[in-house]
Automatic annotation (TrEMBL):
Key word Transmembrane present: no
PANTHER family hit by this protein: EXOINULINASE INUD (AFU_ORTHOLOGUE AFUA_5G00480) (PTHR42800)
Annotated ranges, domain Glycosyl hydrolase family 32 C-terminal: 340-450
Annotated ranges, domain Glycosyl hydrolase family 32 N-terminal: 11-312
UniProtKB keywords: Glycosidase, Hydrolase
Gene Ontology BP annotations: sucrose catabolic process
Matches recorded under SUPFAM superfamilies: Arabinanase/levansucrase/invertase, Concanavalin A-like lectins/glucanases
InterPro entries (UniProt xref): ConA-like_dom_sf, Glyco_hydro_32, Glyco_hydro_32_AS, Glyco_hydro_32_C, Glyco_hydro_32_N, Glyco_hydro_beta-prop_sf
Xref: CDD domains: GH32_Inu-like
Full protein name: Glycoside hydrolase
Length: 475
């Protein structure tokens, strides 16, 4: 597995065949559960199942058998899993708490919500005999239930085409409509999918964020995730931003359908690293699709606006080699150049955040380039210099996001993906790139004026060939 071309070495990917959205993220008895949209018979999207894996550290994953199969009510589309601590559903029969999956049944375009339960910590699942538990009121899109416990009862967010609906339940079995949000808010270039309503505790008190995936209509084309900040009174979500404002969680082309783990004190999420524009054509084999690095979520006030901040989890157990620099000085005529592994992390803090630079990941006659232009206040990722792009006419692109300064960045590279966290994770871009070669060359050069920085380069080992880290216990 570790030697397959473009096989991510520290990101989650299925052994074989197609995956899309993460589903049923739930932390229970020391295990992080990751279910996912899965087509076990093919590398293209097809009748959806829920695949399943568990991890104790979010890095090493144990693959488990398919958890949910399509049935007479339809395919198993996206949804969530909760632990029914108080046995509100009455499905618990002994001391062991029951995990309940709430998912969309999709049959010939008709979508309803159903549940399944597990009495053995997610190892086997039983569908509820009275499914569906929430019927379709006549909407074409009615899917991706994300459920959380709100003090005394359950709340479900549901994607309904151009808006999100909220429902309430005492027992997970019966649901009543609460309210709708979004017709007039945010981006509407495509269908709304995979919502998540997240509570944050901030210094200023409680804040809520509503996550909404949208496809197409992302800032750089195709799939992307927008979010709304505001309050939730148990019934309605009230945004604290005006209708036209759009906040994007990640400006790259390849971060979609991310949602948070349930049953955790602090918000943590993972996304599907792909874009519906070309997801079915990616040049990987025998699998197609992988997940992002898990990221912790925070809120931060930036220029009077509440912004979502993402911090990748530490990959400490996988760190092999680390190079740290004193202050280096990059001149326009002299590029910093290093051969790096295909699994690396590169981070830097820059003395003045307003210096223009190019940072390229190079192969044999090809490259992926990150360009920061402080005059245009723009950061771009350019995939047009890559050779392997023909699989889809949508793939080669120059993708951009507005960035005023770059004080620091942290890049995570793994075989065919790069995740770029700028300014402590306040701006993020995730992009796939398929480049040949045993290693890459990282080239960093200042444009126009000199740039002073300190960097840290880390080699990351493979989860398939774990080597004991030199850094264990040190970071
Ligand atoms: C998002 C999505 C969901 C749906 C699932 C189907 O990528 O379209 O809305 O439940 O994928 O696989």
């Amino acid at each position: 597995m570790s030697h397959e071309k473009f096989r991510p070495q520290y990101h989650f990917s299925p052994r074989k065949n197609w995956i899309n959205d993460p589903n049923g993220l739930c932390y229970f008895n020391g295990e992080y559960h990751l279910f996912y949209q899965y087509h076990p018979h093919s590398k293209v999207w097809g009748p959806m199942h829920w695949g399943h894996a568990v991890s104790t550290d979010l890095i090493q994953w144990e693959h488990l058998p398919v958890a949910l199969y399509p049935d007479e009510l339809g395919q198993i589309f996206s949804g969530s899993v909760v632990v029914d601590h108080l046995n509100t559903s009455g499905l618990q029969v002994d001391q062991r708490k029951v995990m309940v999956a709430i998912f969309t049944h999709h049959k010939e375009g008709h979508e309803t919500q159903s549940i399944a339960y597990s009495r053995d910590e997610g190892r086997t699942w039983e569908k509820y005999h009275l499914n569906p538990v929430l019927d379709n009121p006549g909407l074409k899109d009615f899917r991706d239930p994300k459920v959380f416990w709100n003090e005394t009862h359950w709340v479900m967010s549901l994607a309904c085409g151009d808006h999100i609906r909220f429902y309430r339940s005492e027992d997970l079995l019966n649901w009543t409509y609460l309210s709708s949000f979004g017709h007039e808010y945010g981006a509407h270039g495509g269908v709304w999918e995979c919502p998540d309503l997240i509570r944050f505790q901030t210094d200023a008190g409680e804040k809520w964020v509503l996550i909404v995936s949208i496809n197409p209509g992302g800032p750089n084309g195709g799939s992307a995730i927008q979010y709304f900040t505001g309050s939730f009174d148990g019934k309605m979500f009230k945004p604290d931003q005006s209708k036209e404002v759009v906040k994007w969680a990640d400006y790259g082309r390849d971060f979609y359908a991310a949602v948070t783990w349930s049953n955790l004190a602090e918000p943590l999420w993972i996304g599907w690293m792909n874009n519906w524009q070309y997801a079915n054509e990616g040049p990987t084999h025998p699998f197609r699709g992988s997940m992002s690095i898990p990221r912790k979520l925070y809120l931060k006030e930036v220029e009077g606006k509440t912004m979502l901040v993402q911090k990748p989890i530490e990959v400490t157990p996988l760190l092999k080699e680390r190079t740290e620099s004193e202050c280096i000085c990059l001149k326009p005529e002299h590029a910093f150049s290093r051969v790096i592994q295909r699994q690396s992390s590169f981070q830097a803090t820059i003395k003045s955040g307003f210096v223009a630079f190019d940072l390229s990941i190079k192969g044999e006659g090809e490259q992926l380039t990150i360009n920061f232009n402080p005059f245009k206040q723009c950061l771009k990722v350019d995939r047009t210099g890559l050779k392997l792009v023909q699989f889809s006419k949508e793939f080669a692109s120059v993708d951009s996001m507005s960035v005023k300064y770059v004080n620091d960045f942290h890049l995570f590279i793994d075989e065919c993906s790069i995740e770029i966290f700028i300014n402590q994770g306040t701006k993020v871009m995730t992009e796939l790139f398929y480049m040949n070669g045993d290693s890459f060359t990282l080239e960093w050069k200042a444009n126009k004026t000199e740039l002073q920085a300190k960097y840290r380069l880390e080699e990351i080992s493979s989860i398939y060939e774990p080597a004991l880290s030199h850094f264990e216990g040190r970071v």
